[in-house]
């Protein structure tokens, strides 16, 4: 493949791709393969492919088909939205069982009245209803669904581990349908310039063995629940799992919960009481990290509250293991420099900082100055990676990038602009650490209509979110193109 007339690093050049890699970059290149494709890019801008470093792909694929209740401001609004969907012609909402109604995206952190099964019963009494929270750390059911799935909580609300298990059960639509949905979701991601994702879905990694040709590269994470299975199978991070696009990712360890569910493990007490949930204490995380590392498996440690982040960093320090802290939404200033010192990646999701600003003001009022410290982490030398946490936010790297450099999506001023990332830093973090396209690189590339830095400078974050992707290339093959 020969890409003619592309803008790379401010120059108009040709780029030759062969054997899945960038073979040459220069002016007036001739195609070496007479049968290879020659594309005149007409001045399009060439960038490294974009990588979403934290996705729950099954949930994202399913959420695209479920009833969206994200805009609801109360339990009643959620119930009314679901009831309207459950009317004549209403679908099942992407769940197991034709009668099951599945909603997605409720945020109750600012609700005056809590979620309760009685509210759902009043609007949808005869059909099982399961509503997944926006952060995937809670699930809310009506009485019919409680009977079906054996939920005995009086309010019909489960959190953390039990919630994730129920979400998996309720969302089981069978392998053929799920694989089709995931294939569609990866094509949609490719259309936004994504060439790779880290899939941290709560599911056995073996499910990826039957999905050999997604439209993006997938590093399939292994949840700690299945660590021993991975060890027994001899899986190592980076090993090919299916075809040339699916590999084994890191092991995911979950230290705490989430801000939205008020289960993130924090130094300061929540207004409602307690410090959150410590799901995996240091005494358990440390040997688990050692076990994974001894068998060639990297680690992705979920830690949102500042005390959870400290537990994660302590475990990395004691074991000498490398890996990432996923989310790092609240970090004590004393722990900020430890990321670089320990070689631990800060894998963050900038859209959360935009969406959570009001919840932070209410629930982390005494720790708000420690929230989403992206610029501080960068200044201290931390290696950053950007992602979406889809379906918590949309699987769209341009939204993540825009949120990293300008923290607002409404008419309000940006929230804590002192923590904006420099544009070039955020773009590199969006490209999996790649800062440009060079000879010898894997040919995971994206062509966009205009220089994103110039788009942001002239049109702001909203214009950046609307970046026009003309073509996406994975391993030298087009996975999306409009030119």
TrEMBL record:
<protein>
    <recommendedName>
        <fullName>Amidohydrolase 3 domain-containing protein</fullName>
    </recommendedName>
</protein>
<dbReference type="InterPro" id="IPR013108">
    <property type="entry name" value="Amidohydro_3"/>
</dbReference>
<dbReference type="InterPro" id="IPR032466">
    <property type="entry name" value="Metal_Hydrolase"/>
</dbReference>
<dbReference type="InterPro" id="IPR011059">
    <property type="entry name" value="Metal-dep_hydrolase_composite"/>
</dbReference>
<dbReference type="Pfam" id="PF07969">
    <property type="entry name" value="Amidohydro_3"/>
</dbReference>
<dbReference type="GO" id="GO:0016810">
    <property type="term" value="F:hydrolase activity, acting on carbon-nitrogen (but not peptide) bonds"/>
</dbReference>
<feature type="domain" description="Amidohydrolase 3">
    <location>
        <begin position="37"/>
        <end position="479"/>
    </location>
</feature>
């Amino acid at each position: 493949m020969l890409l003619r007339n592309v803008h790379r690093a401010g120059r108009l050049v040709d780029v030759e791709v062969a054997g899945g890699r960038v073979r040459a970059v220069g002016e007036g290149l001739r195609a070496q393969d007479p049968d290879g494709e020659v594309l005149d890019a007409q001045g399009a801008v060439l960038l490294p492919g974009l990588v979403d470093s934290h996705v729950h792909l099954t949930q994202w694929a399913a959420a695209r088909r479920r009833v969206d209740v994200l805009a609801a401001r109360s339990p009643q609004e959620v119930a009314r939205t679901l009831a309207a969907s459950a009317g004549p012609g209403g679908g099942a909402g992407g769940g197991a069982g034709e009668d099951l109604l599945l909603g997605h995206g409720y945020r109750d952190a600012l609700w005056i009245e809590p979620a309760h099964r009685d509210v759902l019963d009043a609007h949808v009494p005869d059909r099982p209803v399961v509503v997944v929270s926006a952060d995937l750390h809670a699930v809310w059911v009506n009485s019919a669904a409680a009977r079906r799935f054996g939920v005995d909580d009086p309010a019909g609300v489960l959190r953390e581990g039990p919630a994730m298990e129920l979400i998996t059960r309720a969302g089981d639509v069978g392998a053929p349908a799920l694989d089709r949905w995931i294939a569609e979701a990866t094509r949609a991601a490719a259309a936004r310039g994504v060439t790779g994702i880290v899939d941290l879905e709560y599911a056995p990694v073996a499910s990826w063995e039957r999905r050999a040709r997604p439209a993006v590269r997938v590093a399939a994470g292994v949840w700690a629940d299945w660590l021993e299975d991975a060890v027994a199978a001899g899986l190592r991070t980076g090993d090919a799992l299916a075809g040339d696009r699916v590999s084994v990712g890191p092991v995911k360890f979950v230290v705490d919960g989430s801000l939205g569910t008020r289960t993130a493990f924090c130094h300061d007490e929540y207004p409602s009481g307690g410090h959150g949930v410590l799901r995996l204490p240091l005494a358990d995380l440390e040997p688990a990290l050692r076990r994974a590392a001894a068998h060639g498996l990297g680690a992705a440690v979920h830690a949102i509250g500042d005390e959870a982040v400290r537990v994660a960093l302590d475990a990395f320090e004691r074991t000498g293991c490398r890996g990432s802290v996923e989310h790092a939404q609240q970090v004590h200033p004393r722990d900020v420099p430890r990321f670089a010192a320990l070689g631990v990646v800060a894998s963050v999701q900038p859209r959360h900082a935009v969406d959570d600003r009001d919840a932070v003001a209410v629930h982390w009022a005494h720790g708000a100055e420690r929230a989403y410290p992206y610029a501080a982490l960068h200044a201290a030398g931390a290696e950053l990676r950007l992602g979406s946490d889809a379906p918590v936010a949309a699987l769209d790297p341009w939204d993540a990038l825009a949120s990293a450099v300008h923290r607002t999506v409404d008419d309000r001023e940006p929230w804590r602009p002192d923590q904006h990332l420099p544009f070039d830093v955020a773009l590199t973090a969006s490209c999996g650490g790649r800062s440009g396209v060079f000879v010898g690189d894997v040919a995971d590339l994206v062509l966009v209509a205009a220089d994103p830095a110039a788009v942001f400078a002239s049109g702001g974050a909203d214009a950046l979110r609307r970046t026009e992707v003309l073509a996406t290339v994975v391993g030298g093959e087009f996975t999306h193109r409009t030119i």
